[in-house]
Amino acid sequence: MQKPALKSYILLFILSAIWGSAFFNYKIVLNSFDFILLAGGRIFFASIFLFLLSFTIFKSISFKVLFTKNFYIFFIIGFTNYVLPFCLIAYGIDGMNSGLAALLMSAGPFYAIILSHFFTSDKFNRFKFLGTVIGFISVFILFYDQIYISKTTTILSVLIVMSASLSYVIGGLIIEKNKKYNNETIAILSMICGTIILLPICIPKLYNLNFQLTQISSFASLIYLGVVSTAIAFMIRAKLIFENGLIFMSQVSLLIPIFGLYFSWLFLNEKFSANMFISLVIILFGLWILQLGYKKTNS
Fold first, then answer.
1. Helix 126-144, helix 274-298: angle, nearest 10
2. Taking a C-beta distance cutoff of 8 angstroms, is the pair 95, 153 a contact?
3. Using alpha carbons only, what angle is made at residue 250 by residues 247 and 254, rounded to the nearest 5 degrees?
4. pLDDT tens digits, residue range 173-213?
């Protein structure tokens, strides 16, 4: 794997801001739509956006792959990278503030290193092990504070959001194993497959939806989640995985909780506790230790 260039770090920063902004937009969308329609709408608008670009910018997309024996790969990627995590986040975040969800999602790199140890050539060393332990200590602090001290959420909501982070990591490993397909093909075909999966569930819900009660801000946030936080973001994500590997891309979680907390305060006026701040510091420290482990492996 090549050494990450400056461009890769810039893309990592942009991706962090985009995904960090997704959490407060979830809250806005949920004012008018349920979690299934949120997930389905997010994937639908992303698919439409990338499909239109396939006729102009991304002409290298190979749609014929969907008609080969390997078509199922894109359904698996679509399910693990879009359908499942989108539904889990939307369902879980309804029972907590958006800043907490951003913090919980930052556990991604710790899942990544555990799964990479067993399924790839990227193995544990002492730094990776220590960073992972520190990371899960921070998650425990969040878990205990929000459920037993602040009592602002439930065990179920926390576990659901954490499961979404795990799903992203599994999806990332699947993408990394299918590098024979280019970045654009992986992104748009998996989103189309994700839309197909959710379409039979969303159509009846749309039929029964009272559009007169739908807020314009919710619809605008749903389009933002689809076009920016999904289509554009996942194109960046796939590019980073292809060029620098899953471990480098997972560093996005260093910045997501910072952006997530900032945007939730800026747009929703959400407050965060001292324990949430302590957990954030511990998470960043654990991820820094984890990066030392990656550098040790590459040296």
1. 170
2. yes
3. 125
4. 888 788 788 777 888 899 999 999 999 999 999 999 988 88
**121, 124, 125, 128: CA torsion to nearest 10:** 120
Whole-angstrom CA distances from 106 to 79, 177, 203, 255 are 20, 23, 33, 9
pLDDT digits (tens, 9 = 90+) for 260-286: 888 988 898 887 777 778 888 887 888
What per-residue confidence (pLDDT) applies to 75?
Answer: 95
Token code pair at residue 255:
């910045």
First to last CA, the chain: 12
Q: The tokens of 53 are what? A: 């670009």
Backbone angles phi, psi at 68, to 5 degrees: -110, 175
Tell me if 195 sits within 8 A of 44, measured CB to CB.
yes
**What are the two backbone dihedrals, phi and then psi, of residue 179, each rounded to the nearest 5 degrees?**
-75, -5
Structure token digits, residue 262: 């900032």
C-alpha 161/C-alpha 233 separation (Å) is 19
Model confidence at 1: pLDDT above 60: no
Q: CA dihedral in degrees (176, 240, 27, 37; nearest 10)?
A: -50
Q: Which of 70-79, 115-124, 194-203, 206-215 has the lowest mean pLDDT?
A: 115-124
Tell me how far apart the alpha carbons of residues 151 and 154 are, in angstroms, rounded to a whole number. 7
Q: Which amino acid is at 248?
A: F
The pLDDT of residue 14: 93
C-alpha 288/C-alpha 126 separation (Å) is 13
Written as six digits, the tokens of 149 are 């001290």
Extract the tokens encoding 31: 């004012």
Mean pLDDT for the stretch of residues 32-36: 95
Distance CA 68, CA 70 (A): 5
